[in-house]
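Session log. Operator J.P. requested a structure for one protein chain; no other inputs attached. Running the standard single-chain path with C-alpha cell output.
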Amino acid sequence: MIDWVPNNFGAAPVNEDIACVATGDTLLEVEKNIVDALRFHVQGLQEDGLSVPEELKGEWQPEFRLSTRAQLKYVENYITRKALARETGINEQQLSHYANGQRHPRLAIQKRISEGIRAISQHLLLI
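Structure written below.
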C-alpha cells in the first residue's frame, strides 16, 4: 500500500505482520525502495532462521495500491483539482481535504476519485 506521508510517498505491506516500510520522492522510487526493503527483510529472516511470511516465500511480485491521498498527490502535476471536481462531482475543497489528509473519503468516494482520474486520462489519450 502506498500513501502520501508528509513530503513524500510511503509504502508498507498490507499485512502489518511484515515489518517493512519505505519512502521515496516519486512513485517509482518508493516502489523500488519497498521491493528492496522486502528482499532485505526476507534475507534477514532466512539468515536468522526465522519463518518467512507466506506471501514472501519463493518468487513473488508486488501489487501496488495507492491510497486516495497518494493518487491525488500523484496526479496533481497532471490534472487540476478543478478538472477532477468537474469529472467526479466532488468539490475542489473536499478534494483538497482528502489530498491533505484532513478528511478520509468513504469507499464509494474513493472509487469516484479513481474513476474520475481514469476518465480524464482516457480523454487525454484521444488527443
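Operator note: The mean pLDDT is 94.
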